[in-house]
Specification:
The complex is a heterodimer of chains A (320) and B (281). Chain A has 320 residues and is α/β, with parallel strands linked by helices. Chain A is built from 12 helices and 13 strands. In chain A, strand 11 and strand 12 form a beta hairpin. The C terminus of chain A is likely disordered. In chain B, helix 7 runs antiparallel to helix 11, helix 10 packs across helix 11 and helix 11 packs antiparallel against helix 13. Chain B has one domain. Chain B is mostly helical and 281 residues long. Classes of the chains: A alpha/beta (320), B mainly alpha (281). At the A-B interface, helix 1, helix 2 and helix 3 of A face helix 1 and helix 5 of B. Chain B: This is ABC-2 type transport system permease protein.
């Protein structure tokens, strides 16, 4: 199968700064690919190269089988884009944006249906975009990306500025598009968004692709623990939980038992054994969150997997 | 042809821009005031030719401003705001953007001049019994050509710069470099050309050769030289322009017109070349 997007050794330098460093990336047709990384990791530069907004310093790029440098218009004809920061024309109405985009793609558009699909009020569609909120602009950008009936969607931080309803709508649309056989390539630093909707994930840090794969694959590759937390009435002395296959370690804090698992399927046995010896008040299961994965991959040069580094990456989000 | 989609979009956008309408309106007002001044002041009803000459002079100074203001942000403004990315995310090429913007802004400028000329022609016909429609139409055509030469320059500047500030600096710089040095004798561009060519480079060029360099390098000078083609000989004589017969072939008004046509193409081609190679971030 031909990949929808493929880069080999893609490198982009701006003066002395290496924004993208020897990137090898493959996105398959029909998949939803989440392109994850902190701000400044080089995600937007990669997207800008795919769309021929910037030219690579080295390496080769194929989008839908074409080279952006020579066949950008062929790529754009089959691609819908949500650009970073949803730059729009403040003097034009939402409807005019959609009609113009459809015209550029040479297709007919049902602007009303599109506005409804992304959850923009129809009356807002007739107002100049200058008065839109960030969330509304983001919804309109998504509608514009869909207006040309594309085979490939390239979305740069598409959920930034969306409220929870908007985010949910966005995820539904991405799934619907993928179910129709379209390829969705979207960047995000919002981890939950990527986790919820992607078939595969690529993690970028400092211009490099540090990991690619499905989320279970990434977990396996990293060998990260899952853990289970039990609240008990009283911690019994002779649990010997360490003897259960798959258990990595046990920590006791008051009446809280925290059991780290190398094998997540050991959870049932752990709960059963504790329940035989003590009254269990509560059980919480903690899978390896993508956030922890993310922190692991992107904390530069550090092997530390502490909650602190996850907090730092959250902080970076807030600051942005 | 996606140049057309760019033109269509740009019309939508620019028709809501106030600046362009304002500058166009100002030019119309100026012409009307000048005509009124000739009619009711200095010249009287018999002086239709002086009225047309005034239109040339005010046009020489004012037309570039209209053209530059109308077009210098066409591309650079969109790069600064980022909306160029929206535009280029659709199936339009960079060439389409440059040509589409050029066509759209050229049409906007030509249309606002057409309005101004229509009003001026109507007034002139009423105020000046000796009004010559042919002279007026010729002047209007050359003035429009002159305006489009500056639109071409503005598009080139806009395609070569990534921010509003730089585009403005480029547009103002070009305006001063071509306009002030032509219209004010104190800062004569020709004297500067002569100094560089003859004193510094020792080329020993004659007056006509210097004049040719002036026409070639400066659309304002080309415009003024070209008007000899349409203005009657009595008028050009009265305002102290040299007789056509005394000029070398390469400074004849036809050459000046050809050079103005060159200005329609060359700057835009350079702008396109630069825009094609720019990183748009």
């Amino acid at each position: 199968m031909m990949p929808a997007i493929r880069t080999d050794g893609l490198t982009k330098r701006f003066d002395d700064v290496v924004a993208v460093d020897s990137l090898d990336l493959e996105v398959w047709k029909g998949e939803v690919f989440g392109f994850l990384g902190p701000n400044g990791a080089g995600k937007s530069t990669v997207i800008n190269v795919l769309l021929d907004f910037v030219r690579p310093t080295a390496g080769s790029v194929r989008v839908l089988g074409h080279d952006p440098r020579t066949d950008a218009d062929r790529i754009r004809r089959r691609t819908g884009v949500v650009p970073e920061g949803n730059p729009l024309y403040d003097r034009l109405t939402g409807r005019e944006h959609l009609e113009w985009t459809a015209r550029a793609h040479d297709v007919a558009v049902d602007a009303t249906a599109l506005l409804e699909r992304v959850g923009l009020p129809l009356e807002a569609g007739d107002r100049p975009v200058g008065g839109y909120s960030t969330g509304m602009r983001q919804r309109l950008s998504l509608a514009m990306a869909l207006a040309g009936d594309p085979d490939l969607l390239i979305l740069d931080e598409p959920s930034a500025g969306l409220d929870p309803t908007g985010s949910r709508r966005f995820r539904e649309i991405v799934r619907e598009e993928a179910d129709d056989g379209r390829t969705v390539f979207f960047s995000s630093h919002v981890l939950g968004e990527v986790e919820a909707v992607s078939d595969r994930v690529g993690i970028m840090a400092d211009g490099r692709l540090v990991a690619t794969g499905t989320i279970p694959e990434l977990r396996a590759e990293l060998d990260l623990d899952a853990s289970i937390v039990l609240e008990v009435e009283r911690v019994p002395p002779d649990l010997a939980l360490e003897a259960v296959p798959g258990v990595d370690g046990v920590a006791v804090d008051g009446t809280t038992l925290r059991v780290d698992l190398a094998d997540a399927t050991a959870k049932g046995e752990v709960v059963a054994r504790v329940a035989r010896h003590a009254r269990v008040l509560d059980v919480r299961s903690e899978g390896t969150s993508l956030e922890r994965l993310f922190a692991t991959y992107t904390s530069a040069g550090s092997t530390e997997r502490s909650a602190e580094s996850a907090d730092r990456s959250r902080l970076a989000e807030v600051e942005e | 042809m996606s140049v057309r989609t760019v033109v269509a979009k740009d019309f939508l956008d620019v028709r809501r821009a106030r600046t362009v309408r304002f500058v166009g309106g100002l030019y119309t007002t100026l012409i009307v005031l000048l005509f009124a001044q000739v009619r009711f002041g200095t010249g009287g009803p018999s002086d239709a030719r002086m009225a047309v000459w005034n239109m040339v002079v005010v046009g020489a100074a004012f037309i570039p401003a209209i053209a530059l203001v109308s077009a210098y942000l066409a591309i650079a403004g969109e790069r600064e705001s980022g909306s160029i990315v929206s535009l280029l995310s659709t199936p339009v090429s960079r060439r389409d953007v440059v040509l589409g913007k050029y066509v759209s802004r050229a049409v906007v400028v030509a249309a606002s001049l057409a309005v101004a000329f229509t009003i001026a022609a109507g007034l002139a016909a009423v105020w000046f019994p000796a009004f010559d429609p042919a002279v007026f139409a010729g002047t209007a055509a050359l003035t429009t050509l002159y305006a489009l030469a500056y639109v071409s320059v503005a598009i080139a500047v806009s395609a070569s710069t990534a921010t509003r500030a730089r585009a403005m600096a480029g547009a103002i710089g070009f305006y001063f470099a071509t306009n002030l040095v032509t219209l004010f004798d104190d800062v004569s561009g020709l004297a500067a050309l002569e100094y560089v060519a003859n004193e510094l480079l020792g080329l020993g060029l004659g007056a006509d050769a210097i004049q040719f360099l002036g026409i070639l390098s400066n659309p304002t000078r080309a415009y003024l030289a070209s008007t000899m083609l349409v203005l009657p000989a009595e008028l050009t004589e009265a305002i102290g322009l040299p007789a056509r017969e005394s000029l070398s072939w390469y400074v004849q008004p036809e050459i000046a017109v050809a050079i103005l046509f060159g200005w329609l193409v060359v700057p835009v081609a350079i702008g396109w070349y630069r825009f094609e190679r720019a990183d748009i971030t």
